[in-house]
Amino acid sequence: MPATTASAGLDRRRARWAHGFTLAALAGWGVAGWLLPPYLVAGPDVVAVRALKFFTEPVDALHLAVSFFHVLASVGIAFLLASVLALMNHYWPVTRIMIQHRWYPFLNSFSGIGWAVLAVLWFGPSHLTVLFAISSTLTPFIFVNLREGLEALDKEVLEMGESFGRSRLRRFRLIVLPSLYPFIFAALRIAFGVGWKATLIAELFGTNLGLGYLINVARVEFDGATIFTVIALVVVIVYVTDRYVFAPAQARLSRHYVDA
Amino acid sequence: MRRNLTARVLAEGSVALAIFGWWAMARTLPDFILPGPWDVLKVLVRLFTDTAFLGHTFASFVRVVASVLAAMLIGGLLALLARVVPVLQWVVMRRIQPFLNSFPSVGWAILAVIWLDVSNEAVIFVQVIILIPFCLINISAGLDEIDAEVVEMGRSFTRSPLRLLFRLYLPLLTPYLIAAARISYGIGWKLALVAELFGAENGLGYLMVRAQYTGQTSVVVATCLAIVVIFIVGEKLVIDPLARRFAAR
After folding, report:
1. B220–A118 CB contact, under 8 Å
2. According to DSSP H, which parts of A103-210 are helical?
């Protein structure tokens, strides 16, 4: 009991320090924004006013919505591609060297910005360009997670499943897929975070809509308010989604499927 | 044995087929859309042999290595701070780390140019700040895994903190330091292109963007492939042998 009390006390002090640090960082940003010109540092007040426009002005809202579409659609496409690769790699051992030692290292080490530049040359500025560049960047991240999930499957459970039924599809749906849920979720969680960063890079070259396009125009025009607001929006979206949506959901899934 | 041979044939065959497909497509398309494998190979070789190109490759290489080392040092110090001063653990792991992790790399690249102008410092700043969370996560995981009983035993042999650091903590942390170096090296090379996009007057990223503007697609593709080559060679020749050496211990 005393140990629990001491631990709770330490957690309270940690929380106080963490909140204090957040306030100090915001205050430091505020002071910097007040002392320096907006193109060097746009303060929190300027960013708050500019951020509001993303929810009130139709043009800004469209840029935000387009970036959301690019992220979600690319995560979907990359998930599909990575699933095919991971399943081939697992169920068709003859393809393992090809996928794990040829295609994966190539995809993993090819720069996201390289895909973006090439996609612009191949497809011109379009949604297809952005989706191609982001999906190519995300596929290796998702593949690694799914491959680990398939390798971690419990052989005894699979054997037991075989004794209950001969249908491979039914065994996949009822045994393999539920065992993969924590890994699928981890893959989607990573892909969502990386996807936002890759989207800004892809939109920088590949389209005239989206937050990446907006930040590039703001860079050329020395519009510090927009630069800081786009960065703040991405940080908030990624942080809040990860902390309050993905993390609790993944903890629940892990408890249900791994600890059970 | 036979299955292994088939797997090898399939692997190498897929690479050969991809190159053949690339060659066949390049024949029907203009050079600025898709240059052929031979043209790209010639530029790729020049990136490692021609002095003008080699300068760009070397500049990026030096920046990546310097950034990886700096990020490991800062990430290691932050991880150590969270460990040595327990009340600061959430400041490091729940404020600094998630903030740095969610900050877009393009954002850092643009801010670095605004704050530091076009310079080496701007590029290294971008790479270091993006690599810090990766090093921080790996090194804190290593610190969490250190067995308290081993530390206690070490303390019974010596009271010198430096001796404990070099003889106990660092050897136990080595696998995690290597993991941090491996991840940072890979990401560092991909980041080099983003960091050098706006903030450099040389380097592979600068070369790639200049080639894009002038329609030299063979240089764009060769630059991307040069990074793949440097990444794989660095892993095989430096990081893998280091990992094997310390795993053997």
Report:
1. yes
2. 104-109, 112-123, 127-151, 155-164, 168-171, 177-206
CB of B214 within 8 Å of a chain A CB? The answer is: no
For residues A36-43, average pLDDT = 92
Q: Does the beta carbon of A13 lie under 8 angstroms from any beta carbon of chain B?
A: yes
**pLDDT of A260 above 90:** no
Distance from CA of B105 to the nearest CA of A (A): 6
pLDDT cut 90: percent of chain A above it: 58
pLDDT digit string, tens, across residues B212-231: 888 899 999 999 999 999 98
Query: Do A93 and B3 make contact, defined as CB atoms within 8 angstroms?
Result: yes
List the single residue in A with minimal CA-CA distance to B117.
Answer: A40
Angstrom distance (rounded) from CA A18 to CA A243: 15
Q: Is the pTM of this model over 0.90?
A: no
Is the Cβ of A138 closer than 8 Å to some Cβ of chain B?
no
How far off is chain A from B167, nearest CA to CA, in Å? Answer: 31
